[in-house]
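so my prof wants the structure for this chain in the tokens format not the other one, which i didnt know existed until like an hour ago. anyway here's the sequence
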Amino acid sequence: MIDPRTAVIEKRLSGIKKILVFTSGKGGVGKSLCSAVSALILAKRGFRTGLLDLDLQGASAHIILDADLSFPEEAHGILPLKAPFGLNFMSIASFTGDEPVPLRGSDVSNAIIELLTVTIWGELDFLIVDMPPGIGDEALDLVRFMRRSESIIISSPSLVAAGVVKRLLSIIYELNMPILGVVENMSRNWNEGSLMTSVSGNPVKKMCKESAVPLLGSIPFFPALESELGFPARLIAGDFGKSLAGILSPLLRR
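here's what i got, hopefully its the right format
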């Protein structure tokens, strides 16, 4: 049976030039931070940008942005909230606040499909999507309803995290979802010539080589980052924002 919402979602997304999906194999690797700050960087550069937080269990983009979570305005659908630098922002947290979302299986799918169906993005250069960690119903629905999306995978330098990302990549390949590459966050031992910068010593570089996927770049661990959360201008101007901007720049030229 064809879901009638499919046509509505295609219409809602028809004015978006590029959809970038940020995902990860495990939580705690900085996926939401990378997606939110990427959206801020693009908006600050003058691109018409939207940020969609689909992490139903751990929505946090509004905290990173210090964004207003008032109920969205309705006008034949729901209009995104406005975040700093003119960023269009939508989050499941607008409807649930800080309460947990006890959804499973088909309920998760329906919640995401409804959010995609009712949100009016209009004309955008970029839509950044912050996914829940791992591959579940959410990812499968995105592939089904957001066929033009491209994936950016975030990993920490942990051997465990890299191993989970490798499994994640194999599933994304099976779904025929385009992969732009992997970003290594909280990279340790940033010194040139060190063991961790070599392919053999760095789990993320090794995983990317074995999976034949580009390593887009590495972001060191910055202790001052925590104090920048909730301050968008400081996030962009700080070391983390500058490192992420350097990784994004080549992608914008494609």
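also thought this was worth mentioning. Residues 47 and 187 are 29 Å apart (CA to CA).
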